[in-house]
Each structure stands twice: as structure tokens, then as C-alpha cells.
Amino acid sequence: MTSDLFPAQAVGSVVGIGGAAGALGGMLIAGIVGHVLQWTGSYKVPFLMAGSAYLLALAAIHLLTT
Predict the structure, then answer these.
(1) Which of 49, 7, 52 is nearest to 32 (CA)?
(2) 6: left (phi over 0), alpha (psi -120 to 50) or beta
(3) 18: Cβ–Cβ under 8 A, 6 or more apart, which residues?
């Protein structure tokens, strides 16, 4: 999708920025999940967060590309 939306000269940079954002998000969500597990003692909230993340990302892609 990146190669379809950005010029060839920018594809590597866009993918790199996306990878860095994903790594940072993974670090942050790990801490959040730890706090949620201590607070609730259940995996329901983290599973709901993970399940809804795909739908939110799909909605964001549709909004940003239209």
C-alpha cells in the first residue's frame, strides 16, 4: 500500500517511520496492558483493545486515503 500512495523516493522513509511508530506503540501498549491486568485481573480488556485495533486502523486508513 505504501508504494501505491507515495512516490518511489519516499517509500523507504515512510516504511521506516511506520516501523518506528509501531515499535514505540508496542512498547507503550505493553506497559498499558500490564497496568490493566493489575487493575482488573482479567485479559478481557486487552483482548478487546487488540480486537478493536484492527478496525480502528482500517477506519484510519480509509479516512486518510479518501
Answers:
(1) 49
(2) beta
(3) 2
Residues 28, 30, 35, 40, CA torsion sign: positive
Local confidence band at 53 (pLDDT 50, 70, 90 cut-offs): very high
Summarised one tens digit per residue, pLDDT across range 22-43 is 999 999 999 999 999 999 999 9
| ∠ CA 26-61-20, rounded to 5° | 30
Among residues 21, 23, 17, the alpha carbon closest in space to that of 2 is found at 17
